[in-house]
Amino acid sequence: MFDIREELKTLPELPGVYLMKNASGKIIYIGKARVLKNRVKQYFTGTHDPKTSALVDRIKSFEYIVTDNEVEALILESTLIKKHMPYYNILLKDDKSFPYLRVDTEAYFPTVTIVRRPAEDGAKYFGPFHISATNLNRTLNILKKAFPIRSCNKQLDGKDILRPCLNYHIKKCAGACAGYISREEYLAYVKHIIDFFSGKHEDIVKSLEKEMLEASDDLDFEKAADLRDKIGLIKSVTERQKIVSVGGEDEDYIAIYSEYDLCCIAVFYVRDGKVSDKREFIQKNILGEPIETVLDSFMKQYYTSETLVPKTIVVNVEPPDSELIQKWLSEMTGRSVTIKVPQRGKKKEMIDMVLQNAQIHLKNTCLRQSNARMIAEEGLHGLKELLDLEDIPVRIEAYDVSNFGSSHIVAGRIVYINGKKEPSQYRRYKIRGTDSQDDYLSMSEVLRRRFKGGKDSEDMPDLILIDGGKGHVAAVSKVLRECGLSHLKIAGMVKDDKHKTAGLITPEGPVDMSGHMPVLRFLSGIQEETHRYAIAYSRLLTEKAMRESALDDIPGIGPTRKKALLKAFQSVDKIKKASTEELKKVKGITEQVAENIYHYFNEDE
């Protein structure tokens, strides 16, 4: 049995990290200390505020790890907090890592894509970038207009000549697959993109301006105009960034604002003297720590890679371990890193603006959460009353079927727990049992797969919502009876002629929704989310098939004819089996093209 008083006597007078555990042995708090003996003893002596007392009451045992110095203790503390996510620690909730650019250097014509984490796959990675994945993707798309590298996954060796896809025709690709660009020119495009994200904006513009003048001198006005447009695109990206430093410095501006037990930390990234992007983090302050301590914890968890650390970090309050953090970051990066709390001048004006952003973001977040909570509470209570449920439905599952013609028939399931989305429990389904546009069969298949374990199926819902009407509800009711789950409550979400949620229908008939507008608002959100999730999967599969379709290699088949063929026959397999006469019936398919298609799929006969 762990005796805290006896264990306190054995604590060393050395730096290290301590791990507090509850009765079940779970780590509930992690801290670091310059002297372990002194710091840990403080928890069990003297008086504390109510929140710290609540923590101490739960501590039933502890462990400690000795380190060589306080910097090592700081690093270990940060690592262990991220690993164990203790309840009482201030945690960096935003788990979206900074994005990287992945360049497939092993490909003859490399692709440039955005990824969250590098992998050991032979590709070259650049980053991480101080920019959100959304903004990075938007910028990359603009740059691809100037430097149209390919987005496809085709295996290109520079020898086989293929028919270019739609991206070439809409000028989003230079047509590497069709031999319309040399490898040398293509690699120059890739280099320009990487250089841009490496901050070499002016170098790229100067290089292109030089090429433009040379083209103009050679009277190649078409090339000069093309280069002029590329320069304009690059400048359109860089000119949106606000200049905040004439000296072109790299700085992070971090401001914290707090209300009650919530804090918002806003981070503005200044690169080459310009604001390149910003992020906001909402932190829960369970122990009611001072904002300086919250900021301290944030910075220790936030700066995990030397490539993310600028030379200067400007903050609105000074973290208690400011000197220690500076020493740690300087050792990590191999250069001097300073933390500043400006009192006047340009930096003070800038950090005040960042603080204002943090304040506005926190207030807006609280307002959204309050509104969402109110809608959910009213919706859940209304559903209990309308559907005569025994209790408020804690777990709601909603289903929708989506398809493009009869190809890529899919369904989506979303889950709400206590009125809130639970994306980790969303599921996607490919329909296997039918290739026709039969929503009833498709929905039946999905529910049959979901509840194949009958009463032993995991996480039984309190309410099942179907995007559909009477027929859908009847089909699902039949499946539930087959699975021995007829006791589960189901309802169909019916839409009006404007595709808005209009009401509910159960196996017993339509539900009178008059006077229940809050329920309709709640259901509308569920129905929209279900539809969005299902159709996103359908589009993903359809676009993938369109890109990778064997039809791309057939002479005379372009995007319009491909779409017409898929719409008429629903799948490539059916096109393969079609006769020339059947093919000619499709709009836009001439006799010659029909023969090309037929011979392409039947050349061995």
Identify the CATH architecture of the largest domain: 2-Layer Sandwich
CATH homologous superfamily assignment of the largest domain: UvrC, RNAse H endonuclease domain
Please count the beta strands (DSSP E, at least 2 residues each). 19
Radius of gyration: 30 Å
Describe the structure.
- With 605 residues, the protein is of the alpha+beta class.
- The protein has 5 domains: 4-84, GIY-YIG endonuclease; 100-238, no CATH class; 251-363, Ribonuclease H-like superfamily/Ribonuclease H (Nucleotidyltransferase, domain 5, 2-Layer Sandwich); 395-544, Nucleotidyltransferase, domain 5; 549-601, DNA polymerase, domain 1.
- 43% of the residues lie in helices and 19% in strands.
- It has 19 helices and 19 strands.
- The protein has helices at 4-9, 36-43, 50-58, 70-84, 133-146, 166-169, 183-197, 201-217, 221-238, 291-302, 322-333, 345-386, 439-450, 470-482, 517-548, 559-569, 572-577, 580-584, 591-601, and strands at residues 16-21, 27-33, 61-66, 100-103, 112-115, 124-126, 251-259, 262-271, 274-284, 312-315, 338-340, 395-404, 407-417, 420-421, 427-430, 463-467, 490-495, 501-506, 509-510.
- Strands 12, 13, 14, 15, 16, 17, 18 and 19 form an 8-stranded mixed sheet that branches. A 5-stranded mixed sheet has the order 9-8-7-10-11. A 3-stranded antiparallel sheet has the order 2-1-3.
- α4 packs across α11 and α8 (201-217) runs antiparallel to α9 (221-238).
- The chain is globular, with a radius of gyration of 30 Å.
- The protein starts with a helix and ends with a helix.
- The mean pLDDT is 85.
